[in-house]
Every structure is written in structure tokens, then in C-alpha cells.
Amino acid sequence: MRPTAIFAAFLLIAFPTAALADAIDGHWCHEDGRRMTIDGPAIVTPGGTAMTGDYDRHGFAYVVPPGEPGAGKRIAMQLIDEYTVILRTGLDSAKSVEQVWKRCAKPMA
DSSP character for 38? Predict the structure, then answer.
């Protein structure tokens, strides 16, 4: 076995979550109790709307749908680390609201 293959196998065994840590996909919670789920371009917003947005492995953006607080505003999220996403509301960075969201478990059905 080549040294690079041995090293790759070691990484997979030693750090089994490393592949998941590099993507924004998953369940996210805010300290005020709001939750959202991202799965590729699909999102379930904090208001419960299932829709699609602009997906990147490390980021996600969408426009808040009608009927939810902030309807019509653009939301942009950036993955900071395995457990943290920074969410920004609005296009104007001077007026943007920034929130910290943390990775959390799948909600009970």
C-alpha cells in the first residue's frame, strides 16, 4: 500500500466527521429557539417554508418568503466552522443584521 493511501485511510478512521464538517448542509439552531435545515439547494426556513436557494458548500442564500418575518429580504449564510454559521440579513452590509447559528440535532417529528 502506498504511503498516501495509508495516510488517507488513517484520516478516515481518525476523523470520521471531517467530510461532514466542510459543508453547510444540516440542521441549524439559533439561541432564541428558531431552527432551519439545509440540504443542498433545499432549505426549510426558520418560518417552516420548504424552498430552494443559492447553495455553495460553505454558504447559502435565499429571499425570505411571504408570510415570514422579514419577507422579501435576502438572507446570506456563511459556514465559519463545523458548528457555526454566520447569517446576515439584507444586501447593505452597513444595515445588515448578523446572527450566529449553531449546528444542532434533527428536530423530533
Answer: E
Domain boundaries, the chain: 22-103
Cα-Cα-Cα-Cα dihedral sign, residues 26, 27, 28, 34: positive
Each of the 109 residues of the chain gets a pLDDT tens digit; together they read: 555 444 444 444 444 433 445 899 999 999 999 999 999 999 999 999 999 999 999 999 999 999 999 999 999 999 999 999 999 998 766 667 899 999 998 766 5
Eight-class DSSP state of 57: T
Strands laid side by side in the 59-63 sheet: 50-52, 42-44, 35-39, 26-29, 97-103, 84-89, 74-81, 59-63, 54-56
